[in-house]
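Lab channel / #folding
Pinned by the channel admin:
"Please post every new chain as: sequence first, then the structure tokens as a reply. Keep commentary short and put observations after the output so the thread stays searchable."

First post following the new format, from NK:
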Amino acid sequence: MNIRPFTEEDVEIAVPIWNLLNPDWPTSVPEVLDDYRKRDPKYLLQSYVAELDGQLVGVGESDLSVASYHPQKFHLTLYVHPDFHGQGIGKALYEKVLESLKPHNPISARVQVRESSERALRFFGERGFVETKRDWVSVLDVASCDLTPYEGLESTLTSEDLTFTTLGELQTKDLEAFRKFVPRAEPATPISYEFFLDNIINAPDFDGRMFLVALDGEDYIGFTGMYPFGDTKALDQWLTGVKRDYRKRNIALALKIQAIRFAKENSYISIRTDKRGAANLSLLKEF
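Reply from TO:
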């Protein structure tokens, strides 16, 4: 077995392995390449692959969170093709990743593990990881969703000043549309407009039609945004938010209805409210 640094050329092989193991959280080669090429060196990413007879069979990496940045708190990702489980590949990748962290004096490492994955839970449990958080996913079947009870809702909300549109439409009329749209009013880690533009708006999976915006005159007061899951016809519900002074007026509901309507009209099969599979456990190891 050979373990070496991950290269851009490995993406074509690594993505299908990831999608095989995570069918409800797939990605795509363009998405991974885009993230790989735009990565800010500040957010340290150390990736390795395991090869058997020249074949890439597993990936292990550590990175730093953009949303909650701390230079000594890492997130680990480890996956091995199921045909090669039980051969010590995951263990070797894990040890290589931990070794690469030592010069950075790590405080902790976090992994995401499915509740249904007994192998992964046992693997990380034996290495000192403990559960600190549990996420659940809600999935909407688009075809069976009946919007009849909500017919006319938007018309009761819209007025000369209060309107609904999409970010795709706004960008053709307002040069400051993207700057006004940065969604984190009080982020755990502030991000720059340039970062938002480069990594969110200019990402290969961004579609301005899927970012629905509520306006009061020229003020942006609410939005909901979606992304497709890789090359599938499933959508990830990214964020929904309404300014405090406009809450409890069904604005978020109206945005959600428009999002579902868009999904129906464009033959999407589902919308999910979380990027990870149901009963996804966050495990933490402190050093």
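NK: The chain has a mean pLDDT of 87.
TO: also worth noting, The chain has two domains: 2-137+277-286, 143-268.
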